[in-house]
Amino acid sequence: MITQGTLFGQSQQLGLNYVLSFSPDRFLAPCFHAAGKESKAACYGGWESRQIQGHLLGHYLSALASFYHAMHSTEAKEKLDYTVSVLKGLQREDGYIGGSPSTPFDTVFSSNGNFAVERFSLSSWWVPWYSIHKIYAGLIDAYLYGKNSDALGIVRRMADWAMRGTQKMSDDDMQKMLTCEHGGMCKVFADLYGITKEKKYLAEAERWIHKEIIEPAMRKEDALQGYHANTQIPKFIGLARLYELTGKTEYKTAVEFFFDTVSKKRSYAIGGNSKGEHFGKAGDETLSRDTTETCNTYNMLELAEHVFDWEKKSEIADFYERALYNHILASQDPDTGAKTYFVALQRGAFKVYCSHDNSMWCCTGTGLENPSRYNRFIARDYADELYINLFIDSTVTTADGWELRIETDFPYSQDVKIRVLKTGTAAKRLFVRSPTWCEALQSMSEKNGYIDFGELKADTAIKLTLAMKLWIRQAQDNSGNFTVFYGAIVLAADLGADNLPPDIVEDHLVYLNTADSPRVEPITADLSSVEKWITLTDKKTLTFTMSGESNKKGVSYTLKPFFSLHHTRYAVYFSSIEEETEAEKEGIDVIEAARQQSEIEHNFKSEGTSIGYLASVDRNYRSFDSEQSALCYEAKFDTKAEKNRIVLATYAKESGIFRVDFDGKEEKELAFSATGKDEIQELIFDVPQNLLHADAASGQFIRKVLTIRANKGAKLIEVRILNR
């Protein structure tokens, strides 16, 4: 148990308070509506008022169960039991329960393979398996961690309902269905097999292995570029559980290859991954406002727990520590408990948090759980070995009765004490991690980066010094970008809160295209002698000063742990070259074709278009199946600007014609010719201002529908709206 009042203790208590502030009846409301019944309270807003509704209910169940397990919260237990009891009463006779009607599932089950599917759409429904998976997982957590026996009965009936449907499908039809994001459904059935030992659940779990993604990893091929990042991670978590249950080595190979690829080649300095929710090229660290989706790191930490159980290597714990301190801890607003979706790494950006009632993003859901999971990896208990992985002030209790206290104020203090409080019933050997950033402990390590302290005894007492120092991590993409670390902690420049707009919002994309970031001077100092131009000025808060001698303009920057920076602009990455490399084009709106969140947030509609990916330019696209195909987006325009322009991005090696209808009032035809270059080509045209001025009374920024058609095969990569 984490010691209250400490860094993680305070964050965990705030996380619990935040979860308890929600109404279970409002989370349950979509299930009432799906069952054709009147709810006891109104649905929450945002995503909980859309087709994906019900996904937050599942996270809520998991969070309540985990807080009960981690902190023994009786209020969490009461709300958990109440929520499960209501679900039990709402469950259909055939076992179905969800936040949406069973329509998309019924359509697929009865279609004989003739159903519509895209990456984020199944039978014209937004990721229905992803949404219902959260309820499956929440009920399993309610049983395992919340000690609610009814939850197992409910989820088994749900599983049997799903299996009766999928049994009507061929294996090819299953693989077709798995094209659409489906969360961790593989792990649901693997977990049920682990709990019940009924082989039908094991057979079903293996049908949910998505071959398009898993088979390349089994061959140790990195085929991730262009894929939606967080869609893939739960697939490997399910595969990890299947390896533990079956011992099939090809599953282990795939999981370890994927984990190494993402953690070592596709992660940013703070431990998170993805840009615009997608994997780019291996080694890419492009800076932008839509980097490091927080859900991804939640899932990568869970995957790390599995991989560590097999290998017990300190490098896995190094990654876990980096991501936990610098992304997960940093993603919760310490004032309100609100959560982030993206954590922006563009210089001069700031964190954007969810509103309490009207956001309900995927990362709001995993964010509810994150503080309850701080305990999970501090120590790992095995039959005859105990591994201390994280230096977090806490009490560790093993299954066989050993109780140890870890005393530390890390990272604010370098001192750690580990002592036995109670002896256990069986002999156990103690291993303590020696982090790669701590040279003093590295010299003591004996086993995979761990120090072997021998068998635990009643008088075991260990003192360690975690000698932290400044060091530079260079970005992998040779961009000249780098990050400053102090031990395990990412230090970021506090750029102040002048003119900072509201940062607790309902739409996480609201500031995505706001190009008003302050300039951060390129660093010209010697990166190999960082201690000469960065000094510790406040040990209590780990505040550092980067001297004016570090850059040509003589600007001095104040550096603080990134996890402590909230409601302020910051710079996590600095540049060692003169020209800023990540500046984005100014604009008021951008729509990335074929990227889930960008399209969903712009209320897209598609008739006869297909999704694809161009590896050479690292961009997704929608192509038009015929001249009658159409794409509709709601885009933002500025009624007060002298000029509004629409920019269409397409592939420069192709020719064709786009036809753009502006709000049903005017159509523009744009012809484009192949340039022969392997790059993105932009087509720009002005919107007649009279079409916008008429709506000026509605406010400065208004939304209008763009309907886009094109010749067969034309590729639309992006739509951008400029007000200059």
Main β-sheet: number of strands, strand sense, barrel status? 8 strands, antiparallel
Question: Strand fraction band?
Answer: 15-25%
How many β-strand stretches? Answer: 33
Low-confidence stretches: 580-584
Oligomer designation = single chain
Report Rg.
26 Å
Mean pLDDT: 95
Class based on secondary structure composition and strand pairing: alpha+beta
Distance between the termini: 55 Å
Please state the overall shape, judged from the principal axes of the Cα atoms.
globular
Helix content: 25-40%
Number of helices: 19
Summarize this structure as a short list of keywords or feature phrases.
31% helix, 8-stranded antiparallel beta sheet, single chain, 5-stranded antiparallel beta sheet, 724 residues
Structure write-up:
It is a single chain. β1 and β2 (121-122) form a beta hairpin. Helix content is 31%, strand content 23%. By secondary structure, the chain is of the alpha+beta class. The protein has 19 helices and 33 strands. The strands form 8 sheets. Strands 13, 14, 15, 17, 18, 19, 20 and 21 form an 8-stranded antiparallel sheet that branches.
In short:
This protein has 724 residues and is of the alpha+beta class.
Task: Please specify the SSE layout and strand pairing.
Elements: H1 7-20, H2 24-34, H3 55-71, H4 74-90, H5 103-109, E1 117-118, E2 121-122, E3 125-126, H6 128-144, H7 149-166, H8 171-177, H9 185-196, H10 199-207, H11 211-218, H12 229-246, H13 249-265, H14 294-311, H15 314-328, E4 353-354, H16 362-369, E5 379-381, E6 385-388, E7 394-397, E8 403-408, E9 415-422, E10 429-433, H17 439-442, E11 450-455, E12 461-465, E13 470-474, E14 481-486, E15 489-496, E16 504-505, E17 534-538, E18 543-546, E19 557-561, E20 569-571, E21 574-575, E22 589-592, H18 596-601, E23 605-607, E24 609-614, E25 619-624, E26 630-638, E27 644-651, E28 656-662, E29 666-672, E30 680-687, H19 690-693, E31 701-710, E32 715-716, E33 718-722
Parallel strand pairs: 4-16, 6-10
Antiparallel strand pairs: 1-2, 2-3, 5-6, 7-8, 8-9, 9-12, 10-11, 13-14, 14-15, 14-21, 15-19, 15-20, 17-18, 18-19, 22-33, 23-26, 24-25, 25-32, 26-31, 27-30, 27-33, 28-29, 28-31
Helix pairs in contact: 2-4, 3-4, 3-6, 3-16, 6-7, 6-9, 9-10, 9-12, 11-13, 12-13, 12-14, 13-14, 14-15
